[in-house]
Amino acid sequence: MTPDQLRVLIIWVLVVMVGTTVQTMQKVGWVAVTPIEGLELPYWAGLWLDVYPTWQGIGAQVAAALFVIGSYVAAEAVRKRRRARLMMDASSVASKSPDVRVPTVDHVAELAATR
After folding, report:
1. Which of 78, 74, 71, 83 has the alpha carbon at shortest distance from 112?
2. Exposure string (b/e) for 31-67, b if CB count within 10 Å is 16 or more?
3. How far apart are CA 13 and CA 1, in angstroms?
4. Which residues contact 26 (CB under 8 A, 6 or more apart)?
5. Domain spans, the chain
6. What is the DSSP letter of 99?
7. What's the CA gap between 50 and 55, in Å, rounded?
8. pLDDT tens-digit profile of 44-67?
9. What predicted TM-score, i.e. pTM, was given to this entire model?
């Protein structure tokens, strides 16, 4: 399984868990039930995927998925910015002292992991 497939699977598990939680809260009366008019889902969508045609359920599932995807994108942006800063620091050290060896990308990644 590739890392991208694993990411999608984890997001989907989250969406299913949120759908189950919202439906349980709706059954006990803690969350209102507002059906989405005109949206008819097959029985198996609720049974296997926990996707139910209510505004609360679909809204919570979309919000959870967007939160996780947004967090991932933000973390990747921070990682790239940190790596670029480390490369700039390494190149400035190398330019000041010609006898200093410029680290490779793998070495910079190792330094970033230790910080």
Report:
1. 83
2. beeeeeeeeeeeeeebeebbbbbbebbbebbeebeee
3. 16
4. 32, 33, 54, 56, 57
5. 3-114
6. T
7. 14
8. 888 888 889 999 999 999 999 999
9. 0.69
